[in-house]
Each structure stands twice: as structure tokens, then as C-alpha cells.
């Protein structure tokens, strides 16, 4: 293709401005949809990955369940508070620094001074705040004494504190949650939205022993107090440190759960790297799914290009005959109409990327939560390159048939066409 061919293509398209504009519109909408939806998926992936990394790259998370690929039908033994206490022995030789456990959480209304706030009441251990890298705005954290005495005390998330005590100092004030009357001993710094939509700003942290005694007295078959998660802080984030820590945890839990050597674990140990990889893989599939849905509109835009090019071939039959009569080859005619098709698709793609970026920016400005933050979006270079290449491919694919049809016209028959 040379400059003269491109100039002729642009002139032909400019001769039918309305028709070209409508064809462009189909491509613009298609590419804008792909760009906007994929940027949303990519933004969510980045947000969750950042939040997981903020939780600490030297922390192992332990959940009940079986590792992927396990085919065991044996019942899974829930993790218990006693399991977390048993792991404390790993602190003796410095294998781990700290261990935190989180019991079951319940969403309920918390009331104080005639005001109320919907909060997640969570039973946690004394080290929960430090292991999760939370900071106290003021007051004090939960202590081992609070756990041992099943104290009726609470640390509030920033949103809960602001709702219940917009003016007063919440420290040493009383709050009520169902049958619990709790004394506030601390308030967390604002954390913002958390991974998977969970935010510490909407939590009320109470001793795990208090939660078990007052909110849920369920015990396992062996008499243990069930919990959701155990978080283990390691000395550093080196791979060998993580491997040693995971091996020590696995040995203790397998012994406690009486798992035979040939059977799989009934718990899952995950590092932040494992979580990030799992989340990235899942969100990557989600992003591609969004792109595939938006790609339907690109298909419609491509059909529009084919349709308009077929009309153009019909209208310019005599022109094609004249060009062939003066020496134009089939290849010249083919390239000419292919260029016109690609120009429409690429121009529509570029405008579509711009529109998609504007849509993404607008979506990011819409506040979704109480913190006023919007959904993160990210128009990355790979999304732009993908959109441009797809647009060009659509132009070539849907332009080949009309261009080939034009190139195969018999010059004598074309000259006679009225």
C-alpha cells in the first residue's frame, strides 16, 4: 500500500460522509465497550492485588478445606481456637513471629446514644490488629487479659465510630449489639475498602473468647471452638522462610487433626503470593469474559463494515471497470477496498478507545461505598493495543469478501453496468 492508495480510500469514504459516520459509530461502540469493560476488570484485579499485598507479604493464611485436586470424601475438621493456640509453640524458635485467629463474624446493628450503625462483629485474638497491619487512631488494642477474662470490650472501625460518636470521644463509652453491652477501648485508623469488599472500617472487634461465649457457643465434635481463619506472621518474606513456616504449621495441624500420613490435609495454607495468583487468574478469566461479551458489538460493527463495502462495490462498478481498463490489476483493486475497510475500522477503533477511556474514568468517579471511593478502572497499554489490533482485524476480515468481489469483476461487464 502506498500513500496514493490511502488518499483514494479516504476520498471515497469522505464522499459519503453520513454512511461512513454510521459505519464508524458501530465500530466506536464496539471498541468502547471492550475498552471500558476490560478496564473495569483490570482495575478490580489491581485493587484486590494491592490490598492483599498491603495485608503483608510475610503472612500465611490458614483455612479449613482440602487442597485443590484432593479426592478425599472424609469430613473436613474445622479449624479451632485451640489449633491457633497450639501453633504458638512455633514462636519459641523464631519460626513465626505472631499468630492471629479470627472467629465467625456476624453483621448486626450496633447502638449507642440513640444512634445506630450496621457493623460486622468479629471475635479476634489480641494480635489480630498487628498481624493485619491495622493501625489504632487512639485508645488501646485488645489484650491477652481481655481474652482470658472474656472481657466485654470492643475496638471500633472508623466508620462505626463516626456513626455512633460523631462528636463525643468514644473511648470508655458503651455500645450495645443484641445482648452484648461493650465498652469501647480503641478506634482503628481509616483503612478504606478491603479485599473482596470487606473493610475494617465497618468492623467491631471483640475478644474471640467473648464472641464464643456470648454470640456463638457452637463447638466441634472434639469440643473445640471453631474459627474461620488463622493468620501467621513470619520473620520475613523470603521463600525459604515461608516454606519452613508452612512445614511447621502443617506438621502441628496434621497431628492435632489426627490425619494419617497417606491422606491429604483438611486445611489449606496460602501465602499472599498464592492468594494473589489465584485472584489474578480468576479475575483474568472474568476480564476476558467481559471482553468477549463486549466483542459481540464488535461483530455487529464488522457486519456493518461488510454491508457498507458491498454497497460501495455496487455503486462503483463502472469506476472499477475503468480502472481495470487502464491497467489496474486485481491486486490493486483488492488492496484499494481492503484499505477503505481497514481505515474505517481503525479510525473507529481509535475513537472507540477514547470513548471507552472516558467511560472508564466516569465510572471511577461514581462513589460506591460509605468512604466515597469509586470502582477502580485501568486503561492499560495492552488493552489499547488489543483494541486497535482487534479493530484492524475486523476491518480486514469483513473487508476481504467485498474487496475480493470487486477485484473479480469483469472489466467489460463493469463498464456496461448502469
Give a structural overview.
It is a single chain. This protein is α+β, with helices and mostly antiparallel strands. The protein has 13 helices and ten strands. Strands 1, 2, 3, 4, 5, 6, 7, 8, 9 and 10 form a ten-stranded mixed beta sheet that branches. A hairpin with a 2-residue loop joins β6 and β7 (180-188). α2 (17-54) crosses α11, α2 (17-54) runs antiparallel to α12 (381-407) and α11 (330-364) packs antiparallel against α12 (381-407).
SSE order and pairing:
Elements: H1 3-14, H2 17-54, E1 59-64, H3 81-86, E2 98-112, E3 115-124, H4 128-131, E4 136-139, H5 144-148, E5 153-156, H6 158-164, E6 174-177, E7 180-188, E8 203-207, H7 208-214, E9 229-233, H8 239-256, E10 267-270, H9 272-315, H10 317-325, H11 330-364, H12 381-407, H13 411-416
Parallel strand pairs: 3-8, 5-7
Antiparallel strand pairs: 1-9, 1-10, 2-3, 2-9, 4-7, 5-8, 6-7
Please indicate the percent range of residues in DSSP E strands (runs of 2 or more). 15-25%
What is the gyration radius calculated from CA atoms? 32 Å
Succession of helices and strands: HHEHEEHEHEHEEEHEHEHHHHH
The secondary-structure class comes to alpha+beta
Question: Biggest β-sheet, characterized?
Answer: 10 strands, mixed
Low-confidence region ranges: none
Helix content: 40-55%
Number of alpha- plus pi-helical segments = 13
Please report the distance between the alpha carbons of the first and last residues: 30 Å
The residue-averaged pLDDT reads: 80
This entry's quaternary arrangement is: single chain
Extended strand count = 10
Shape: elongated
Amino acid at each position: 500500500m502506498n500513500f496514493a492508495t490511502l488518499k483514494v480510500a479516504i476520498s471515497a469514504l469522505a464522499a459519503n460522509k453520513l454512511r461512513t459516520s454510521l459505519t464508524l459509530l458501530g465500530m466506536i461502540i464496539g471498541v468502547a465497550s471492550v475498552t471500558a469493560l476490560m478496564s473495569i476488570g483490570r482495575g478490580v484485579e489491581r485493587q484486590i492485588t494491592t490490598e492483599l499485598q498491603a495485608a503483608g507479604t510475610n503472612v500465611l493464611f490458614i483455612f479449613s478445606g482440602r487442597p485443590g485436586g484432593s479426592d478425599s470424601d472424609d469430613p473436613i475438621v474445622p479449624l479451632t481456637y485451640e489449633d491457633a493456640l497450639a501453633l504458638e509453640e512455633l514462636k519459641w524458635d523464631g519460626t513465626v513471629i505472631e499468630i492471629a485467629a479470627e472467629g465467625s463474624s456476624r453483621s448486626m446493628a450496633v447502638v449507642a446514644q440513640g444512634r445506630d450503625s450496621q457493623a460486622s462483629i468479629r471475635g479476634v485474638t489480641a494480635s489480630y490488629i498487628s498481624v493485619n497491619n491495622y493501625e489504632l487512631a487512639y485508645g488501646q488494642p485488645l489484650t491477652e487479659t481481655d481474652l482470658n477474662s472474656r472481657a466485654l470490650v470492643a475496638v471500633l472501625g472508623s466508620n462505626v465510630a463516626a456513626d455512633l460518636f460523631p462528636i463525643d470521644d468514644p473511648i470508655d463509652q458503651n455500645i450495645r449489639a443484641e445482648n452484648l453491652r461493650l465498652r469501647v477501648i480503641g478506634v482503628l485508623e481509616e483503612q478504606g475498602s478491603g479485599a473482596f469488599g470487606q473493610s475494617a472500617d465497618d468492623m467491631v472487634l471483640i475478644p474471640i473468647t467473648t464472641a464464643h461465649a456470648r454470640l456463638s457457643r457452637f463447638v466441634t465434635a472434639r469440643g473445640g471452638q471453631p474459627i474461620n481463619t488463622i493468620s501467621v506472621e513470619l520473620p520475613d518474606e523470603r521463600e525459604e522462610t515461608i516454606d519452613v513456616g508452612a512445614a511447621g504449621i502443617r506438621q502441628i495441624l496434621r497431628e492435632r487433626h489426627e490425619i494419617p500420613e497417606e491422606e491429604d490435609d483438611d486445611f489449606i495454607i496460602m501465602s499472599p503470593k498464592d492468594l494473589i495468583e489465584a485472584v489474578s487468574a480468576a479475575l483474568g478469566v472474568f476480564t476476558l469474559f467481559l471482553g468477549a461479551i463486549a466483542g459481540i458489538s464488535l461483530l455487529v460493527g464488522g457486519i456493518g463494515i461488510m454491508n457498507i463495502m458491498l454497497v460501495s462495490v455496487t455503486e462503483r462498478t463502472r469506476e472499477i471497470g475503468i480502472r481495470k481498463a487502464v491497467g489496474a490489476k486485481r491486486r490493486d483493486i483488492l488492496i484499494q477496498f481492503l484499505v477503505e475497510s481497514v481505515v474505517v475500522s481503525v479510525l473507529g477503533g481509535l475513537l472507540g478507545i477514547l470513548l471507552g477511556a472516558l467511560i472508564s474514568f466516569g465510572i471511577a468517579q461514581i462513589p460506591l461505598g460509605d468512604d466515597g471511593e469509586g470502582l477502580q478502572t485501568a486503561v492499560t497499554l495492552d488493552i489499547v493495543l488489543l483494541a486497535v489490533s482487534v479493530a484492524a482485524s475486523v476491518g480486514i476480515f469483513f473487508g476481504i469478501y467485498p474487496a475480493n468481489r470487486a477485484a473479480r469483476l469483469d472489466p467489460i461487464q463493469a463498464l456496461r453496468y448502469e
